[in-house]
Amino acid sequence: MAFLEARKLVKEYKRRGVSFRAVDDIDFSIDTGDFVMIEGESGSGKTTFLNLLTGLTEPTSGDVLISGKPLKDIGDEELSKIRNQKIKYIPQGESLLSALTVRENILFPYTVGGLEKPSPERLLEVSDKLGITDLLDEYPSELSGGEMRRATIARAVINKPSLIIADEPTGSLDSANTSRVMEIFKNIASEGTAVIVVTHQKETLGYASKVYGMEQGSLKEAV
Ligand SMILES: Nc1ncnc2c1ncn2[C@@H]1O[C@H](COP(=O)(O)OP(=O)(O)O)[C@@H](O)[C@H]1O
Ligand SMILES: [Mg+2]
């Protein structure tokens, strides 16, 4: 059974009174260890699709299933537990807390809700791979956009979740840091995490084990 599955997933929005399908009848599944990339132009429905997969947006029709269980049958409490422990969503844009240092930001999700705190060794391993060890005691306001991005990624990968979903994670990065980030995703996938990365940069697709194209809400496997 797939870890995460979408069945006949549809999301309709209205524009100037006319409804259209931002996500149009998508069937999709991902298993542990898969590294899936979804490429598509701006406006093709990538973010909407990710928001449906994580349950942040409710579908117009169709289902999302986690380990075979429909999201709509999973209660709020259980769902937030799953989001804390098993599924890490890295949204587009910045999401660090400005009052906390980089180190505190990375560890913050694991200071609440009785989660296991990552070891200092694991923190160093991840921050080294992402090239942010020297920045651990800085505040987000002292970082570049690319550095903030990498700290956000460190926070998501540190506890080796079952699934990582990242929305254009390398959009603001130069090519050296893009490779760093893609390498860490590839690495964590090889250790058993399922990874979904959405991008409009075709040059990063080589890292994935499976590539899909998104066009006007439809998802097709690339050949
Ligand atoms: N909350 C919303 N209400 C209405 N239309 C939306 C909403 N969110 C996204 N859209 C529209 O749905 C389409 C897909 O958007 P999005 O999923 O953000 O695409 P992408 O992430 O590929 O750029 C776009 O036409 C966008 O304007
Ligand atoms: Mg988007």
Characteristic terms for this protein:
223 residues; alpha/beta; Rossmann fold; six-stranded mixed sheet; 6 helices; globular; binds adenosine-5'-diphosphate; binds magnesium ion
What does this structure look like?
The protein is α/β, with parallel strands linked by helices and 223 residues long. It has a single domain (4-221), classed as 3-Layer(aba) Sandwich (Rossmann fold). The protein is 28% helix and 29% strand. It has helices spanning 46-53, 76-85, 102-107, 120-129, 145-157, 175-190; strands at residues 4-15, 18-30, 35-40, 61-66, 69-70, 87-90, 163-167, 194-199, 210-215, 218-221. Bound molecules: adenosine-5'-diphosphate and magnesium ion.
Q: Into how many domains do the coordinates divide? A: 1
Low-pLDDT windows of residues: none
| Ions and ligands | adenosine-5'-diphosphate, magnesium ion
How is the largest sheet built, in terms of strand order? 6-7-8-3-9-10
Task: Quote the distance from N terminus to C terminus.
Answer: 24 Å
Radius of gyration: 17 Å
Question: Layout of helices and strands, plus pairs?
Answer:
Blueprint: E1 4-15, E2 18-30, E3 35-40, H1 46-53, E4 61-66, E5 69-70, H2 76-85, E6 87-90, H3 102-107, H4 120-129, H5 145-157, E7 163-167, H6 175-190, E8 194-199, E9 210-215, E10 218-221
Parallel strand pairs: 3-8, 3-9, 6-7, 7-8
Antiparallel strand pairs: 1-2, 1-4, 4-5, 9-10
Helix pairs in contact: 5-6
